[in-house]
Design goal:
The strands form two sheets. The protein has a six-stranded mixed beta sheet, sandwiched between helices. A three-stranded mixed beta sheet has the order 5-7-8. It contains eleven helices and nine strands. It is α/β, with parallel strands linked by helices. The termini are far apart. The radius of gyration is 18 Å and the shape is globular. Helix 1 links the parallel strand 2 and strand 3.
Length: 281
């Protein structure tokens, strides 16, 4: 299969999916979610593969949705003219959520190898993996929680509990890999020059386990999260994500990005002052 925005390769018992838009810090475009899912399905069908590693080309894992593509354009697919149809938005975003969660639903263990950034939608992809190993200086967070976004996979609360999830999503702050490991958001953080070796070691250790054993352990643990309401939480989060883009403040952010460019709009969103002053209620 030919891919536009990712690369797939399998070597021995380990398959590697590489998010491959390094010139855009592997920002999510229209192709990446479905291609990610297709790559997972290829690995699932390959009986030689026991473990799936997800990484990013170049200096970053994933910088989130490509706001230059989706926020600066007046005809961007993630914004509708008013009145907007929330179910049309949900159909589109729930597909992306399911694509990202293919990493969680796969019968084989998935490991995210994070350097640089795993922010916004990039954090959705990383946290959908079973294990996340970060470079100690890499950054993770969900800045669009400040305006124009809600993490549709909702994995924050299931990884670090309600209070720490609120601390992250009520601020939109970024934290480094060392802090993410300290609070239990990710498995561990290692010096950047040790990241490849650590993930290779972890994947090799797991790849020696029979596929059926890996599948049973993963299904058992995932079932506990399902019993805690993961599916219904994701439904709510995905609906809320659409609302954030069509609220008065969300419309303001989209217009601001069109006017001054997404980089300036993001700086204004994240600097800490009142957002959409005069629009917010």
């Amino acid at each position: 299969m030919e891919f536009h925005s990712i690369e797939y390769r399998a070597s021995g018992r380990v398959a590697t999916i590489t998010l491959n838009r390094p010139d855009r810090l592997n920002a999510i475009d229209e192709h990446m979610p479905s291609e990610l899912r297709a790559a997972v399905e290829i690995a699932e069908e390959d009986d030689a593969v026991h473990v799936i590693v997800v990484t990013g080309a170049g200096r970053s894992f994933c910088s989130g949705y490509d706001l230059k593509e989706f926020a600066e354009r007046s005809d961007a697919p993630y914004s509708q003219e008013m009145p907007w149809d929330p179910m049309l938005d949900y159909r589109m975003m729930s597909r992306n959520t399911a694509d990202f969660m293919s990493l969680f639903r796969a019968s084989k263990p998935t490991i995210a190898k994070v350097r640089g950034h795993a922010v916004a939608g990039g954090s959705d992809i990383a946290l959908a993996c079973d294990l996340v190993v970060m470079a100690a200086d890499a950054l993770i967070g969900y800045p669009p929680a400040r305006v124009w976004g809600c993490p549709t996979t909702a994995m924050w609360v299931y990884r670090i509990g309600p209070e720490r999830a609120k601390r992250m999503l009520l601020t939109g702050d970024l934290i480094d890999g060392a802090e993410a490991a300290r609070i239990g958001l990710v498995l561990e953080a290692v010096p950047p020059d040790e990241l490849d070796a650590r993930v290779d070691s972890l994947a090799a250790r797991m790849s020696g386990v029979p596929r059926n054993q890996l599948m049973m352990q993963k299904l058992m643990i995932n079932q506990a999260l399902d019993n805690m309401g993961l599916a219904s939480t994701q439904l709510t989060a995905t609906l809320f994500d659409g609302i954030t883009r069509h609220s008065p403040e969300g419309v303001w952010f989209k217009q601001r990005a069109e006017q001054v460019g997404f980089q300036q709009a993001v700086r204004e969103r994240d600097e800490g002052g009142p957002i959409a002053d005069g629009v917010s209620r």
